Amino acid sequence: MNECEEQTRQAAAKPGVAAELILLRHAPVATPGRLCGRSDPSAALVAADIARLRAALPLPGRVMTSPARRCRQTAAALWPAQAAQPDARLWEQDFGAHEGLPYDALPDLGPMSGADLAQYAPPGGESFADLCARVAPALAEHGQAAAQMPAPLVLVVHAGVIRAALSQVTGLLSAGLAFEVATLSATRLRCGPEGPVSVIGANLA
Questions:
Q1: Where is the signal peptide (predicted)?
Q2: What is the CATH number of domain 19-204?
Q3: How many angstroms separate the Cα of 32 from the Cα of each of 29, 36, 183?
């Protein structure tokens, strides 16, 4: 049994300590086709898609969001009676000079290794490693809170934040970059007293 499995087993053995942290990616943006990090477009909310996702999820014990409009709008559409609290640490990666560019105008980073890609920062922006460092304390804090709650704690966030969470749980910085994260998908993490310890499922639509 590896360390992660042992942590999960120990957490599950304690009532009320093996709770879930659910990370949801926001709904599609209303102006697609461009790289969207710190820019703040509205979400394109489709009632049928929202209803489907709501039906697939347990009722949250608490909802936190990125301050981005698309995340706040998604949370409000999913659970209109439950006030979501913003956390500035959960913003998407800052893409600097690449922000807002059409996808076909972005540089081709395909030849880079995963390790190099994690360290690459667009001019004036953040690297994925920077994002992971910013997000890690928030994930630990919210994961610890989730471990004490009878219902899941939900974070409505961005693809980059979810990939950062997967990197943190797997223990390999570049690992999160290997995951696809669809809009309105859920990534579910098992949490123990120290925060997230294992992945229950990723990119669940």
A1: none
A2: 3.40.50.1240
A3: 6, 9, 12
